[in-house]
Amino acid sequence: MRIIILLLFVVVLPLGAYAQSDDNPVVWEKEINKISDTEYELIMQAEIYEGWHLYSQFTSEFGALPIILKYKGADQKYVLIEGTTESETFTEYSDIFEVDETFFKENATLTQRIKILDSTINQIEVYVEYQVCKDVCIPMDKEFIFTLDGSEAKKTVLAVDDRSLTLGEKLRLDLKNKELLTQGQDNIAESTNIWVIFGLGFLGGLIALLTPCVFPMIPLTVSFFTKHSQKKSKGIINALLYGFFIVLIYFLLSLPFHLFDSVDSQILNSIATNVWLNLLFFFIFLFFAFSFFGYYELTLPSSWANKMDAVSSKVGGVIGIFFMAVTLAIVSFSCTGPILGGLLGGTTLAEGEVATNLTAGMTGFGAALALPFALFALFPAWLNSLPKSGGWMTTVKVVLGFLEIGLALKFLSNADMVGHWGILKREIFLGIWIVLGIAMTLYLFGIYKFPHDGPVKKLTIGRKLIAFASLTFTVYLILGLTKITNLKLLSGFPPPEFYSVFEQESDCPLGIDCFKDFEEGLAFAKEVNKPILLDFTGWACVNCRKMEENVWSDPEVFPIIKNNYVLISLYTDDREELPEYEQFNFKFDSGRVKEISNIAQKWGTFQDINFNSISQPFYVLLSPDLKVLNSTMQNSDIPTYKNWLLDGLRNNN
Predict the structure, then answer these.
(1) Nearest 10 degrees: CA dihedral of 291, 294, 296, 301?
(2) Distance (Å, rounded) from C-alpha 653 to C-alpha 639?
(3) What gap in Å lies between CA 236 and CA 63, rounded to an integer?
(4) Which pTM was predicted?
(5) Among 28, 171, 521, 626, which one is most buried in terms of CB atoms within 10 A?
(6) Rounded to whole angstroms, what are the CA distances from 443 to 90, 301, 431, 470, 642?
């Protein structure tokens, strides 16, 4: 299910408003407690805007950037007693980085105990670097000054010497057509995952209709309502009511998950985080798959269905129809249960609130089940066009069994990567899928059969079409495995390309030649007389990876970037220390002075002072003589991004 979700990933509005106003998604306060004459407790408290995440010191080094605390003068004038402690954090699995990420939401408290060594000291300075993420990731910093006697803090003024002034001026660009930077940014549309997930649930419901547990019920139930009612209109109303109750039942089944989410919003996300739960889900899906293969039957207790049927007959009326719908849900569980299990698994892999996603999916599932009962009640003549029940429904179950195994492998892959086992690398994962594809293709062509299959006398056209589709998909996987084509349609489902049995060489997006220093890239652009695609990105930027995998990789976009632009990718979250001769103090127009000691500080400041933005991804088109060629761009769809690049080329001429 994640395949379709990632193909239709959310195109969010740029958060330039945050970058272009004084708003800050994190508001800090400080407090100091005296424990003894020589020991103090430094407390830094953060209030985090709704929906934003501030990442813990202890989050995975391969995901979003953690908090880094620098205590000026530590081990000289005072010592730290143990490490900095944190308030409650949350852990969630990141599908983009394939690791657990630990973060704060709503509020955070950092506490550090210190012991004074120099009795003359009165101020403790703490510098905090951190990253906050929502739809974009923003690297930020904060300086705290604690006074031991409660007096007013006196900020240490950083010296800005001639060398710092010279290096600082190099960060400032003399841009032409600068007014273009803020034009046309309203072209990016906002969409939502909810309707995508509703559609996936609806698709699952349509598949469930074709199973032997549900399909034969359609003509029987519709005939019951239309023939056992005194008036035709009454029969139609009852059938429509029956369909409504089916939707209501599946909607109600999702509500308990909202209770769990309110107790701990990570309780469902832990399915995609915890190694052992991932393994459990893997085995559950295998269990479902072999049920579909006919080795055993999954059913709820028959007494439940009998009781519901008895109640519906006894009560009658609207309540009776409701219990008829409950009976359908129970007796069809052996076919719908595994599909609903897949829906649950898929919603944990999707973005957003899990409980809300599940409600959307379950409602869509119920709507698809209810649809034929309503339609055939309104148009009973259509019943004559329904295919007869038969062996084709068993074939549907077997195909679903293969799909269940394919989905199960995703959960095994999650466990493998979180546990750093290195067992299910990308090539091995795809190899197993290829074996499954071959097995399903041979089954559909009648080469072998499962226990509940009858003799295959003649392959139907539908079965042949599905067999050729399976064969085509298998060939697609083989071509992707052998690097003849990319597997863009599966983006985000198999392990990422760097999780490979082969060592990866390029660290530029999609293997495009790129520069990670602006001056070097600008010099090359002047040499070859090509415009610049300036890419403000981050190692831990989720939406940067989405843009690269889903937009840049498009056959119409990729050659434009590769052949017509000089790509300069500046990583604003790279905390690698700059060589000492490149470190300096930068003075803003406001008079504030900032220390530039690492790559993130350098390019983050560069983006801020020239483009009035600190979010990523953030794209700018420049000519070699620093003329702005188009408005800036953040998250986008393929046509919009392609036209944006082409407009930049035209404006460069």
Answers:
(1) 70
(2) 22
(3) 55
(4) 0.43
(5) 521
(6) 45, 32, 18, 10, 43
